[in-house]
Amino acid sequence: MRASHFSASLLALVLSATIAGCASPQTTPTPSAQGSQPQQSQQADPTSPTAEIPDSTTVAYLGPEGTYTEEATKLFFGTNDQLAPQESVPKALEAVAAGTASYAVIPQENTLGGPVTDYVDALLAQKDVSVVGEVVLPIRQTLMGLPGTDLSKVTRVVSHKQGLQQSAAWLDGNLPSAERVEAKSTAAAAQEVASAGDSTSVAIAAPGAASLYGLEVLQANVSLSDANKTRFYVVSRTANTREGYGCALLAATCSASELPRVLDDACAGGARVVCVHDRPEKSSLGVYRYQIELERDGGFTSTELDRLARVKDVSCLGGFSRVEG
Q1: Closest to 321 (Cα-Cα) out of 68, 147, 135
Q2: Domain annotation for the chain: domains and CATH numbers
């Protein structure tokens, strides 16, 4: 469980009594081995992550080509779809809301960098969309530059802010004096370094971005952790309608003191808390919008989803299953 405004100890104190009944060891819902294959191969399993996804569709994602979000998109949807890279996560969500894309894939949380708060805010702010899938993708942040780049002469490192955060320890030890510059995405950073033609600048991006943009890999896995993973949500205007998906996402608006009651009510049907992210509600101090993901052995029935939607201060953002890379 994670929360960006509470200290770990304070959050544990507030929630410990509440989630005691929800804190049995988490089990990851097992995705179908055909999770990224066309729908016709999945009719026998209505809870497959892509059970309600058409064979071919339009998917918006954080671009340009070569981002981790593109990797997550391909892992979930396969290769039979029209991928539409967007310059930002809000733009990807707007494409879904406007109907120019049927789905969007958006990052939400990283094991090293924590919640991507701008993207959590974007999802909570977007009306009339539902989460219909989840992708957990291993992240291997890679340092890359123009061919022949001399690391001793590098003065500038470009990446998405999460890439910079996840690689901070390596940068502190190896490029401590280099300026760290944020880009809209890791692939945009690679694209910028390639187009600038300046060997004193390097990018941190997905490994595949190096060949895509004509760069040389200078150092693999600068995040220094095999545990580095990112959670992505698949978003649509139309919610999943079948029963049995193993995960559910809630949004709750309440004071911090009301959160234990919300979690207690949410877990009453046998669910477990996967994560909690808190964002300011922006009307008064002490009131937050919480993003809460739950999982439940045996999946969520329509009756259980209806019960969750009736919990005071809560709205249900969708039931879905998880694909892991």
Answers
A1: 135
A2: 8-35+46-138+231-324 (3.40.190.10), 142-219 (3.40.190.10)
What contacts 173, CB < 8 A, 6 or more positions away? Answer: none
Quote the pTM value: 0.81
Task: Check if 77 is active-site.
Answer: no
Rg (CA), the chain: 20
Per-residue model confidence as pLDDT tens digits over 236-267: 999 999 999 999 999 999 999 999 999 999 99
Residue 299 has pLDDT above 90, yes or no: yes
Catalytic residue among 69, 230, 300, 320: 230
CB atoms within 10 A of CB 180: 17
In DSSP terms, which residues pair with 318 in a beta bridge?
249
| Options 6, 77, 232, 300, the catalytic residue | 232
**Has 230 been annotated as catalytic?**
yes
**How far is 193 from 214, CA to CA, in rounded Å?**
10
Mean pLDDT rounded to a whole number for the chain = 86
With 60 as the cut, is the pLDDT of residue 287 above it? Answer: yes
Number of other residues whose CB lies within 10 A of the CB of residue 88:
16
